[in-house]
Design brief:
This protein is of the alpha/beta class. It has eleven helices and twelve strands. The chain binds NADP nicotinamide-adenine-dinucleotide phosphate (NAP).
């Protein structure tokens, strides 16, 4: 029986088992997907167990996403660009690592809002952490020409933009602070919250999405609550909004396909189940 996993520390909050078990059941596959709490000191031993055949692969979450890179024998170009791995699998006797957050972000917008990625557009991204990095790599691939990165800690945005401008040999990424949001918003085609603002209904006083033009798309990757205060303000102003749970669902697709050989679908039924938090 094929066994897959999600590792993290802690891990009990992860929605990945619910998600992958839904697909295993939907497609009547015999594999398993389990949550394993792995302390940092045990990461090498766990990856050795994968290499010796205990698992076919799995997901990696906090705090192992960066540390596991050094234990992979092959890394995808995306994992290298993002600097973190969230999906592992064995192939030809080697441990492979990829990062599917970029794919999940892009696929969610593709599904919810086709043609969202018009060329020559301007994006504002809030946050400069791991998720922001994956999204920024996705936006440059989709042809965004100007991308402002607004972060509470200015130096972190500066470092991230400098690094990405070097990697992509471009000047597209511009760092600034959250205080600049209202000044920049009237020129934005896409606004992405990739920071923790919004969790538990928090709001940033400097960020007023109603300053965006009427055609702008506002998306949030925070999904607790599903409609964050940012999305609620934007919706009330008549702007197109896209919530963050779709990214979570779509980022799981490539891993499931690698482990179990079938590309699963992201459906409304799955979305409802994850939002309910029901475990079968
Ligand atoms: P991270 O690496 O820890 O980065 C957190 C970011 O949020 C940083 O830019 C940080 O700014 C900012 N931040 C935190 N608290 C803030 C506050 N009170 N005010 C303003 N900015 C604040 O985390 P991450 O992995 O990038 O994740 C960011 C969020 O996205 C989390 O809420 C996570 O749950 C969510 N997420 C969702 C998905 C999905 O599939 N939908 C996927 C990944 C992550 P500083 O640099 O100033 O600290």
């Amino acid at each position: 029986m094929e066994r897959a996993f999600v590792i993290g520390h802690p891990i009990s909050h992860s929605k990945s088992p619910l998600l992958h078990r839904h697909w295993l059941q939907e497609y009547n596959l015999g594999g398993t997907y389990e949550a394993v709490d792995v302390e940092p000191a045990d990461l090498v031993a766990f990856t050795n167990a994968i290499k010796s055949g205990a698992f076919i692969g799995g997901n990696v979450t906090i705090p192992h996403k960066e540390a596991v890179m050094a234990l992979c024998e092959k890394l995808s170009a995306t994992a290298t660009q993002i600097g973190a791995v969230n999906t592992l699998w064995m192939q030809n006797g080697q441990l492979h690592g990829d990062n599917t957050d970029k794919y999940g972000f892009l696929a969610n917008l593709d599904q919810q809002c086709p043609k969202w990625d018009a060329q020559n557009s301007v994006a504002i991204v809030l946050g400069a952490g791991g998720a922001a990095r994956a999204i920024l790599v996705g936006l440059i691939e989709r042809g965004y020409q100007t991308i402002y990165v607004l972060n509470r800690t200015a130096e972190r945005a500066q470092r991230l933009c400098a690094e990405l401008n070097t990697v992509f040999q471009t000047k597209i990424f511009s760092p600034t602070t959250l205080q600049d949001f209202n000044k920049l918003a009237p020129n934005a085609d896409l606004i992405v919250n990739a920071s923790s603002i919004g969790m538990n209904n928090t709001k940033c006083e400097h960020v007023d999405p109603t300053r965006a033009p009427k055609h702008a798309i506002i998306t949030d990757i925070v999904y607790t609550p599903l409609e964050t205060p940012l999305l609620a303000d934007a919706r009330r102003a008549g702007l197109r909004t896209i919530d963050g749970v779709g990214m979570l669902l779509h980022q799981a697709v490539p891993g499931f396909e690698r482990w179990f050989g079938l590309r699963p679908r992201v459906t409304q039924q799955l979305r409802d189940k994850i939002l309910d938090g029901r475990h079968d």
